[in-house]
Amino acid sequence: MTFALDSFSLCASTADLDEEPAAREHADCVEFRMDLAEEPLATLDGYDGELPLLVTNRPHWEGGETAPYGRLDALAAAVEHEAIAAVDVELATLRGRPAGTNEIDPAGLVEHARANGAAVVASVHDFDGTPSPATLDGLLRAAAAAGDAGKLAVTARTNGEALDLLAATHRATIRGDRVATMAMGEAGRHTRAVAPVYGSRLGYAPVDAADATAPGQYDLATLRRLVDDLS
Ligand SMILES: O=C1C[C@@](O)(C(=O)O)C[C@@H](O)[C@@H]1O
After folding, report:
1. Is 142 part of any domain?
2. What is the bridge-based pairing of β-strands 119-125 and 84-90?
């Protein structure tokens, strides 16, 4: 199963693939947060939903729940499932932040994903703030070059920071970089609806607002409506 990174896709973000039927009405894909799930690989074996999956196995050091060791091997096993359309790998991982000693290396994971028909989303998260415009440009450039799309989630503390992220998204799109952006936190919330207007290719939302996977997310039905209204 695939979804195109050439246009916007809305992912229902969840640790529970049993939510897929409820997500179908509004989502184009499901982000399966393996790091937040109990038995992620067994769960994938049993997946028979309709929506394509983007798998994420976020380590502690980038805001997730997985211990660093073994997580790249788990992603390598995950991409072998037919339902997987894309895999999220942190830019820091792709740049060589140490993984487990006997694990597949990041370049091997990228190759394995692509050989199995899965696109690679190279991701960067800043849970503290929004870097300067020059740094935003550099991160988006690097992430877009490292994967089939580069994703940047920052934390906006002011409207000005949210605007910086939107402007960087616009610049990236104009220069031809395939990016996905969102600002976390209350001040950044509207960017989740507006960034697609400036070229962001991916959005994330929980089916139920109570199960948010990041600060400031809209629920899925709301984000679908907002994005569709603005585009
Ligand atoms: O990287 C992202 C974006 C995100 O952090 C957000 O802000 O919506 C949610 C995460 O689940 C996803 O992996």
Report:
1. no
2. parallel
What pLDDT, on a 0 to 100 scale, did the predictor assign at position 4?
A: 81
Strand partners, 90: 123
pLDDT band at 97 (very low <50, low <70, confident <90, very high): confident
Q: Is residue 149 part of a domain?
A: no
Q: How many domains does the chain have?
A: 1
Rounded distance between C-alpha atoms, residue 12 and residue 31, angstroms: 6
Burial of residue 65 (CB within 10 Å: 0-12, 13-18, 19+) is middle
**Average pLDDT over the chain, rounded to whole?**
95
Provide the CATH number for the domain around residue 16: 3.20.20.70
The whole domain housing 113 covers 9-121+182-230
- Other CB atoms closer than 10 Å to residue 122's CB: what's the count? 27
Which residues are part of the catalytic machinery? 125, 151
ipTM: 0.98
Q: pLDDT tens, 166-181?
A: 999 999 999 999 999 9
Asked if residue 82 belongs to a domain, the reply is: yes
Residues with CB under 6 A from ligand 1: 13, 31, 33, 56, 88, 123, 125, 151, 153, 182, 184, 204, 213-214, 217
State pTM to two decimals. Answer: 0.96
* Residue 173 falls inside a structural domain: no
- The reported pLDDT for the residue numbered 165 is 98
Instruction: Check pLDDT > 80 for residue 231.
Output: yes
Going by CA atoms, what residue is nearest to atom 8 of ligand 1? 204
Q: Which residues, listed in sequence order, are joined to residue 181 by a DSSP beta bridge? A: 152
